[in-house]
Amino acid sequence: MFNHNVNTGFNDLKQVEMAIKSAEHMVGQATMSMDGDQLKAATDALNQAKHRYQEAVTHQTGLDEQFLELAEEIIERTDHQLKEAKK
Fold first, then answer.
1. Tens place of pLDDT per residue across the chain (87 aa)
2. Which structural domain range is residue 50 located in?
């Protein structure tokens, strides 16, 4: 039998990872095109990634500390890229 906490931790990590990768991709596309709709969609995707990250940090059951640090760095870098594009 699987330990529910370990399985939940893995799912949380996967959701955070997928949300960050999606946001990173969308921000990259939006900042290249500078299309208003794409910038809005990228902002929404980044906010979703931040939300998933924050949920994972709050419920840190079995989560990899190194992964969380890397996730935070990517979110901050992506957020900065998006803010610069909106200036």
1. 333 344 555 677 788 899 999 999 999 999 999 999 999 999 999 999 999 999 888 876 566 788 888 999 999 999 999 999 988
2. 4-86
How many domains are there within the chain?
A: 1
pTM for the complete prediction? Answer: 0.78
Centre a 10 Å sphere on the Cβ of residue 1 and count the other Cβ atoms it contains.
3
